[in-house]
């Protein structure tokens, strides 16, 4: 009878340890999921920030050249002005 009791005690201890391991795995998986979500949010913020920086630089670069293209479209091209003066 004592050996049966000892075996039951061992089974109960093993079950308790298994429950602790299971809970630890659940907590670990939850932390991993949260970390992935946080990392994804950081990545999205980084991408948005870089896109804004790019658009700002692009607008600055095109803005300096944009004046020339608008002059060409208006017909204020230097060659046309010279032709108008000569003709």
Automatic annotation (TrEMBL):
Domain of life: Eukaryota
Pfam families for the chain: V-ATPase_G
Similarity comment text for this entry: Belongs to the V-ATPase G subunit family.
Molecular functions (GO terms): proton-transporting ATPase activity, rotational mechanism
Chain intervals for the UniProt region annotation (Disordered): 61-87
Subunit architecture: V-ATPase is a heteromultimeric enzyme made up of two complexes: the ATP-hydrolytic V1 complex and the proton translocation V0 complex. The V1 complex consists of three catalytic AB heterodimers that form a heterohexamer, three peripheral stalks each consisting of EG heterodimers, one central rotor including subunits D and F, and the regulatory subunits C and H. The proton translocation complex V0 consists of the proton transport subunit a, a ring of proteolipid subunits c9c'', rotary subunit d, subunits e and f, and the accessory subunits ATP6AP1/Ac45 and ATP6AP2/PRR.
UniProt KW Ion transport keyword: yes
Residues in coiled coil: 18-56
Keywords of the record: Coiled coil, Hydrogen ion transport, Ion transport, Transport
Biological function: Subunit of the V1 complex of vacuolar(H+)-ATPase (V-ATPase), a multisubunit enzyme composed of a peripheral complex (V1) that hydrolyzes ATP and a membrane integral complex (V0) that translocates protons. V-ATPase is responsible for acidifying and maintaining the pH of intracellular compartments and in some cell types, is targeted to the plasma membrane, where it is responsible for acidifying the extracellular environment.
Transmembrane segments: none
GO annotations of cellular component type: vacuolar proton-transporting V-type ATPase complex
Name of the protein in its database record: V-type proton ATPase subunit G
Composition bias type Basic and acidic residues, residue spans: 71-87
């Amino acid at each position: 009878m004592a050996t049966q009791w000892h075996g039951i005690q061992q089974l109960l201890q093993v079950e308790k340890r298994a429950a602790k391991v299971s809970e630890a795995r659940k907590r670990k998986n939850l932390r991993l999921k949260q970390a992935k979500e946080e990392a994804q949010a950081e990545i999205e913020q980084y991408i948005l920030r870089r896109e804004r920086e790019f658009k700002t630089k692009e607008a600055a670069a095109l803005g300096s050249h944009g004046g020339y293209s608008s002059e060409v479209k208006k017909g204020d091209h230097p060659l046309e002005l010279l032709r108008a003066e000569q003709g």
